[in-house]
Amino acid sequence: MKIVIQLVLWVIIGFLGYLVYNSINGPVEFNKIKQARYAKAVENLRDIRTAQIAHRTVTGKFEENPVKLVAFIDTAKFTLTQRRDSSFIRFNKVLKIDEPRDTVIVDTLGYASVKDSLFKTGNHKNMIKIPIEGIDANFELKAGYINKNDLRVAVFEAKVAKDVLLHDLDKDLLAQEKEVQSVDGVNGPYLSVGSMTEVMTSGNWPRTYGTNDQ
Q1: Handedness of CA 77, 63, 165, 202 (dihedral sign)
Q2: CA dist list (Å): 101 to 86, 94, 107, 194
């Protein structure tokens, strides 16, 4: 009987030890995996932002369709221009005299491929896909316009839910991560760049993942 009690106690001690170890090691492992996945996702979000800003530069708007955005990178060209100051003489009909006038002349120097300028490695082809093994999903992409100070301004947003990036990790720790509000963390339930409500092209990740604005 004594041996049975000892065995039961050892089982209980072992189980409690496991719980203590898991309570310490679980969050450490969670953060390690989280940071690695966030870093990969941020790389793609940066590429999406670069592509969107190029699209706005050429067309004046952002693109909501990911297939069209990739096609734009493959085919579009930047117009290379040069601005120079100049002047001319205009006759003043009221004063009956010639008056000098200043102006700015914009010369078109040529064109440059958007792809060769920004995506020489071709990494834009898969920028819409979530770059995490085992996750078959795309970033959510939106684009449109908002009114800001009586002006119609183009905006875009690309994002992925933490539920998607961290779907196979501890659910309690994931729930805590979705509630994060910290300068050193990714705030809220999404990892994102841009906004559909504000005029911005920055991301919501901290500088530990690199610069979040452009």
Answers
A1: positive
A2: 9, 16, 19, 42
| Spatial distance between the Cα atoms of 130 and 139, rounded to a whole number of angstroms | 6
In one-letter notation, the amino acid at residue 59 is T
- Cβ count within 10 A of residue 200: 14
What is the pTM assigned to this prediction?
0.78
Confidence of residue 21 (pLDDT cuts 50, 70, 90): very low
CA distance 156 to 142: 6
Instruction: Show Cβ contacts of residue 14 under 8 Å, excluding neighbours closer than 6 positions.
Output: none
Question: Cβ(56)–Cβ(71) under 8 Å?
Answer: no
One-letter amino acid identity for 57? T
Beta strand 140-148 pairing with 97-113: unpaired
Tell me the chain's radius of gyration from C-alpha atoms.
28
- Angstrom distance (rounded) from CA 92 to CA 96: 5
Q: CA angle at residue 113 from 50 to 210, to 5 degrees?
A: 25
Residues 6+ away with beta carbon under 8 Å from 45: 139, 158, 191, 192, 193, 203, 205
Tell me the C-alpha distance between 155 and 62, whole Å.
7
For residue 142, give the 3-state DSSP assignment: strand
Question: In the predicted model, what is the mean pLDDT of residues 141-158?
Answer: 95
Residue 30 carries which side chain, given as an amino acid letter?
Answer: F
